[in-house]
Design brief:
Elements: H1 2-5, E1 13-17, H2 28-36, E2 39-42, H3 48-51, E3 59-62, H4 74-86, E4 91-95, H5 105-114, E5 119-122, H6 127-134, E6 147-152, H7 165-168, E7 173-178, H8 184-194, E8 201-206, E9 214-219, H9 220-230, E10 236-240, H10 247-250, H11 258-268
Parallel strand pairs: 1-4, 1-5, 2-3, 2-4, 6-7
Antiparallel strand pairs: 7-10, 8-9, 8-10
Length: about 270
């Protein structure tokens, strides 16, 4: 019993959604945890503006993965979280967007559970809602869209995407595709072949909610070409559906230049 009492209690791991990039879109819970953390394990897509909110002296560990270059396998990330927690560290696992929407947060949580490590899930604003809202595109609208479908456009190890193309062709569903930039032409071909009209309104939004936001809107059949011509770079959210047309009236966000944004942040510090 004395040996058991002497064992170090594991630290708690907070799986935190960092949101789409704008630090003002962090939840209060996420901000408080960043201020209190002893260590932060973070992904590539966490914006620099959010990393700047972490106090000096807090251990920061980058485990970011880039398309086609997974510098740290997911299994090793899982084990890193376990090791840090078992050492008694209070740990924030910081993920872009929401940890449970294409963020593999559930895999990490399951690994923590297997080791009896306490954890908490802190939701974040996901790219689908952020990119669409900042582009002036409602995901649902009476008479235009009665449902929303979120899918990943990422191909695993060059395998073909196994998606419900027929279901995604529903004209009354707004479709949001994550991680689909590199395979956009293939995705569009599959959608049109499944019955989605080539003239369906579509948009591609790069780094929505940030000063780096750029967007392209075009009929679905022309979107891949227009995106290439515009030189959009990941991360990009692809939005397909009749609601995209409403952006002509609902567009409201004018991204500041990077210089303006930097000056605003300095003035506010």
């Amino acid at each position: 019993m004395s040996e058991r009492r002497g064992m170090k209690q594991p630290g708690k791991v907070y799986l935190v959604g960092a949101g789409p990039g704008d630090p003002e879109l962090l939840t209060l819970r996420a901000f408080k945890l960043l201020q209190q953390a002893e260590a932060v394990v973070y992904d590539r897509l966490v914006a620099a503006e959010i990393m700047d909110l972490i106090p000096q002296g807090v251990t920061r560990i980058a485990v970011g993965k880039e398309p086609g270059n997974h510098c740290i396998p997911q299994s090793e990330i899982n084990q890193l979280l376990v090791r840090l927690a078992l050492a008694g560290r209070s740990l924030v696992r910081l993920k872009g967007g929401d940890p449970f929407i294409f963020g593999r947060g559930s895999e990490e949580a399951l690994e923590l559970r297997r080791h009896a490590i306490p954890f908490e899930i802190v939701p974040g604003i996901t790219a689908a809602t952020a990119a669409s809202a900042y582009a002036g595109i409602p995901l649902t609208h009476r008479g235009l869209s009665r449902s929303v479908r979120l899918v990943t456009g990422h191909l695993l190890e060059d395998q073909p995407l196994q998606l419900d193309w027929a279901g995604m062709a529903d004209a009354e569903t707004t479709l949001v595709i994550y991680m689909g930039l590199s395979n956009l032409a293939q995705i569009i071909d599959q959608l049109i072949s499944a019955g989605r009209a080539a003239d369906t309104p579509a948009a591609a939004v790069q780094e929505g909610s940030t000063p780096r936001q750029r967007q392209v809107m075009a009929p679905l059949g022309q979107l891949a070409r227009r995106v290439t011509e515009a030189g959009l770079e990941a991360p990009v959210a692809i939005i397909v559906g009749a609601c995209v047309n409403l952006a002509e009236e609902l567009a409201w966000f004018q991204p500041p230049t990077l210089e303006q944004d930097h000056a605003q942040r300095l003035a506010g510090s």
